[in-house]
Specification:
The chain has about 70 residues and is mainly beta. The protein has one helix spanning about 20-30; strands spanning about 10, 35-40, 45-50, 55, 60-65. It contains one helix and five strands.
């Protein structure tokens, strides 16, 4: 009998303020999926789940893009 501990878990990185490409690369390196909601611009202004949360590997993180400050 084998008992599974479930999926491995990872911590969601903070991608707010980064470009879409930077954010996607960081999230994918952490083993997470990326879903993009874009208004205008190419800077992440919000993410869900929030940075620092522990989630199952493969979880989808939604990033909201708009104009950001350089």
């Amino acid at each position: 009998l084998q008992v599974s501990a479930g999926l491995p878990q990872v911590q969601v990185p903070d991608v707010v303020g980064r470009s879409q490409q930077e954010a996607a690369a960081l999230l994918q390196q952490a083993g997470l999926q990326v879903q993009v909601n874009q208004f205008f611009g190419d800077r992440v202004i919000r993410q869900s789940p929030a940075a620092g949360r522990t989630v199952d590997i493969g979880t989808s993180v939604t990033i909201l893009l708009s104009f950001g400050q350089d």
